[in-house]
Amino acid sequence: MNLMGIDLGGTTVKFAILAEDGEIQQKWSIETDIKDAGKNIVPNIIESINHRLNLYGLSTRDFLGIGMGSPGSVDCTKGTVIGAYNLNWSTLQPVKEMIEARTNIPFYIDNDANVAALGEQWKGAGEGDNNVTFITLGTGVGGGIIAEGKLVHGTAGSGGEIGHIVVEPDGYRCTCGNQGCLETVASATGVVRLARDMSERFSGKSHLKFLIDDGQEVTAKTVFDEAKLGDPFALNVVDKFYYYLGLACSNIANILNPEAIVIGGGVSAAGDMLLKGVEEYFFKFAFPQVRTSTKIKLARLGNDAGVIGAASLVRVQKC
Fold first, then answer.
1. Which of 1, 299, 306, 307 satisfies CB 3.0 to 4.6 Å to 5 for a cystine?
2. How far is the C-alpha of 223 from the C-alpha of 202, rounded, in Å?
């Protein structure tokens, strides 16, 4: 029997057919059509599923189920999504009802960050442990928490909002309305914001400062690349980033004591340099027993985390 995983994003929808052990057999993707309030997204997904089943000579009886990760507020019991603004979904979408009706395959859905956490926990850096926290550093900062083998959803479905841990009470205003959230300093845009603000107070020689002052495009990758080259100002910026992320990781670990805190997303491409920097502050702030039992790791699955985690929803079959 097979599993199917779907990773629904604002630009593309990724699909995978997997064996029951989580090994990917086939992968494909389609563009996400967000026009007309996103009304074509689910029909396009259904059409693509049915087309691929015909292409590969498979039937609905060959599948245990379909799992999907979606942005927005997901009711995993009812199988609905609302508030996925990058999909133009401002009204309630009965995703489960629509997909089951036209594929005849059981369907399961959860938030995309939760699903990526499941992927890393099952087949990635979490290595199958029952206690794993996942942090994704991209345009924003997302997260998913697996505690005692179960996803933490919370009473209003807001469990795992790691990006909104406050790390600087008088810090930058966040899109959520609070000040000093992790997302404001540890996302791709947050790192650049740190660099621009800190450049005003740096007076030494720095190629990164020159790029900023000269009005050239500066990204999080620029900042980390310059730090790797030993740029003194860039090293100051990434150290501040490590401080905030290490502080957040220690707070998470002091509460949950997971086997691993797994860091993924675009910013994590900084690699071992990021890992060592975050660990330094994590060790400084974490409770002694937590410090020696919780590991900070880099995500391993890359873009496959979403489809693998989505497929694992079929195995779990509960919120």
1. 307
2. 15
294-318 tens-digit pLDDT: 999 999 999 999 999 999 999 986 6
Comparing C-alpha atoms, which of 71, 80, 77, 69 is closest to residue 118?
69
- Rounded to whole angstroms, the Cα distance separating 97 from 89 reads 16
Q: What's the topology of domain 128-299? A: Nucleotidyltransferase; domain 5 (3.30.420)
What is the C-alpha to C-alpha distance for residues 110 and 71, in angstroms, rounded to an integer?
9
Which pair of tokens denotes residue 124? 């990635």
Q: Residue type for 125, please?
A: A
List the Cα angle 12/18/22 in 5-degree steps: 110
| Cα–Cα distance measured from residue 307 to residue 3, given in angstroms and rounded to the nearest whole number | 10
State the CB neighbour count (10 A cutoff) for residue 229: 11
Q: Measured between alpha carbons, how far is 95 from 271 in angstroms, rounded to an integer? A: 36
Please state, in angstroms and rounded to a whole number, the distance separating the CA atoms of residues 134 and 114.
Answer: 8
Give the tens place of pLDDT for each residue, 176-222: 899 999 999 999 999 999 999 999 999 999 999 999 999 999 999 99
Cβ partners under 8 Å of residue 215, min gap 6: none
Residue 13 and residue 44 in contact, taking contact as beta carbons nearer than 8 Å: yes
| H or E, element range at 280 | helix 272-285
CA nearest neighbour of 24 among 307, 220, 302, 244: 307
Inter-residue contact 182 to 244 (CB < 8 Å): yes
